[in-house]
Structures are given as C-alpha cells and as structure tokens.
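Continuing the batch. This is chain 6 of the set; chains 1 through 5 are on the previous pages. Same settings as before, nothing changed between runs. Recording input and output for traceability.
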Amino acid sequence: MKKSILFFVVFVLIALTGIFYGNSISNQFTHLRIWNYENIALLLVGLPFLFLQQKAGLPDVCNKDLTFRQQFLTPFGIGILFGLADLVVIEFFLTHTTHTSMPPYTQPFPYSIFLYSSGAFEIEIFYRLIPITLILFIFSKIKNGAYQSQAFVVIAVLSSLREPIEQFPHGSPWWFIIYACTTGFGMNFLQAVYYKRNGWASSVYMRLGHYLIWHILNGIYIQYVVL
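Output for chain 6:
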C-alpha cells in the first residue's frame, strides 16, 4: 500500500512542478497550456480509491507480485507501439499543412514532460481508477461478487468508448475515422485489462508510453527540426 501511495504522490508532485515551471516560462511561449491548483484538487479525488482496490477485487496499484517487465515494460511498450502508429498515420499519411508552429497536441520541451505526464495520470484517474473501482466495489457486495466478472466487461467496454467518442475526428477521411476509433478503443480496452490483471499502475504506464511518442518526442522533433 505504501508503494501505491508513493506512486500517486510522485505524480501529484510532477503536476505541481509543471505548474511552477510552466508559469516561469509562460512569457517565452505562446499557447502554453498551464495547469492551475484546481487540477491538483481533481487529482486528489482519486486518492481514496487506492484504498478500495482489494475490496473491489483488484490488485494493488503497484503490484508487488509482478516483475518489473510485467508491471512496467510490457504495458509501456504497448503504449509506445500505439504512439508510433499514431505518429506514422497522422504525420505521414493524413493530409495536413506543414507545421509552422507547435501543433495543439504538443508543447515545448522539456515542459511537455510535466504536462503530458500529469495529463496521462489525470485521464487514468477518471477513465479507469474511479469508474472501474467503483463499479467492481459495488458488484462485490451483490451476491458475494457473483456478477463481478460481467460487471468488469461492461465497465471496461464503456470506459474504453469514452476517449474515441470525446476525440471523434469529425471531418476526417473515412479510413482515419475507422483507424482512430479502432485504436482508441483498443488501447483503452487493453488498459482496462492490464489494470484488472496487473494493477492500475500498468494502465498509467501504457498511456505514458503512448504520450512519450505522440506528444513528447513528436513535439521535440517539430520544435527543434521542423520549425
């Protein structure tokens, strides 16, 4: 449990550092996205759910029974693969104008490390930690958890649909709509599966792998090579 709390605290500290750092460089960049302290309060909403993991039939956030490869490397690597796919499809195949400024899915480096690490953590709190924990905890009380497996499948599917719906690429070519919805649902569903199997940290690591490629390294390339 201590490792799980430490895991959470580290990401809150990253977010706080990002606020201070972002404000210190705000006069150097336009369109810099800086969090405020309300965002920190939102992160803390997820903290009580750390204590419900075992009661909901889920592994600890940081599962001590797993190897480093199982907990971190494999989900992080899967996230990297999804990020590479997005990079190739969007930057090389999807028609767009040449970048003349930082696109909205990037931020200046190294500030991008803090923003997208915090963003990944926040999304995983509200896409997975809270809804999956809450639903499985409730169903653990119904007939001694007899319907918990079915409940997980339903909440895994529903939570996996949220991001593709919220980021639906209106006006894009039909093939890209299919690609975006399929990969968006696919990664989110894999995150739910890894959460159930390995613990919530693995879900966070998968999103971090994706963000490393798509938001951070892509942003570095655009910032220092293209512009």
